[in-house]
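Prompt: I keep going back and forth on a fold encoding question. Comparing notes only helps if you start from a blank page. Show me how you would write down a chain together with its backbone fold. Please set it down just below, with no commentary around it:
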Amino acid sequence: MMKAIVVGSGPNGLAAAVTLARNGAEVSVLEAADEAGGGTRSAELTVPGLLHDECSGFHPLAVDNAFTRSVDLAEHGLRWARPDVQYAHPLDGGGGAAVWQDVQTTARHLFDDGARWRQVFEPLAAHFPDITDDFLQPMLRIPQHPLKLGLFGSLAGPPASWVARLWRTEEARALFAGVAAHSLRPLDTLLSSAIGMALGTAAHTYGWPVAEGGSRSISQAMRAALEASGGTVETGVRVDALTDLPAADIVMLDTSPAAAARIVGDALPGRVARGLNRFRHGPGAFVVNFAVEGGIPWTYGPARRAGTLHLGGSFDEIAASEAAINRGRMPERPFVLLGQQYLADPRRSRGDVHPVDAYAHVPAGYDGDATTAIEDQIERFAPGFRDRVVARSVRTTTEVAAGNANYVGGDIVTGANSAMQLVFRPRPAVDPYSLGVPGLFLCSAATPPGAGAHGMAGYNAAMSALAQSRAGD
């Protein structure tokens, strides 16, 4: 029987392991931390009984993709829940904008820009399953649905600052800025619209669901699926070199590119080593989890029903703050993403005390304290918020990186989303998962299609490994 070892148990490592095991391999997953799951871990971080997601909280691209179609995670306990409002963007003065899963409902709330919002997102949402089949794969390949992918690319390729001109109102432009800022890139650069268009379209197709019982339910379901196929997961095992591993036909590394280069060492071909060591990480995240009595008193009504909040003001203000962090400067008003997962999954709360997860975009390796800046942004749109905070848990970029070695400098998306790295991550190669050594592969979010708990980087890497193995038989 073919033997495989996966180093790292994030959603991509587990997806790779499940895919290999379901194709007949004997699979062992080795995890350095005491708990499996990587970016899908959840814990009681503030007060007992209140469940917070440590990193990834909403999973619009994990509902329907090639990996999730290959294994029924619902059979292993995974359940999705959706908030009434998928995401909202409050503005000064009590106004704002929001996205519902239904495009028509969203359009009605955007008034003068409603028709244009519908013209942009309705055709994309109608074809999104086919579009995702292509953009959740490496870019250097022949697309299965070239016309549909081309439609998506016509809006994903330009800078977000250009795409925002499709809308005339401050509300619609800010709404797009918030979702585009998930890229952690300057919004005037090529392909800075790509992640915003993908996540925005996903909201109108699948919603922005949460996993019932916390994001840890995703990794728990993957682990259960792996164990059902005979695979194993061992935690507390650190791998520093290939010599730490037993003999295996396939080794999958769910690590950063630099860590992969260190682990493989001199066995790595020079061109591959150079490519991995040139890989650049992006800005960081400063995380604060809150326990809030009575919820957050947002001035903008739909924000009180929204799973995700984008806090940063106007398009121009968000563009300025994202440009600043990419230049290594901490803005006075950073862009803040805030999750109210309990609205979709009330069991995360205890009585009238609710878990709220927030993080600010900050420069890579930022060594300051952004707690006040985050709270100021929330208070800006929800006066009286601080009075409701029962407890808080703070993690600096250093602590974020210590909790997950792939998050270098606090980079929770495992790599800068520059135009080059969006297309050629982690290095220019026809097979970006192969490390140039037979049986050795990289399967982390540093490979296509990038960050998220969708598992597609792991699935793609495993399929590459299986193809290579069959070709060698």
Summary: The chain has a mean pLDDT of 96. The first strand starts at residue 3 and ends at 7. The chain has two domains: 3-45+52-79+212-278+418-472, 82-210+282-403. The radius of gyration is 21 Å.
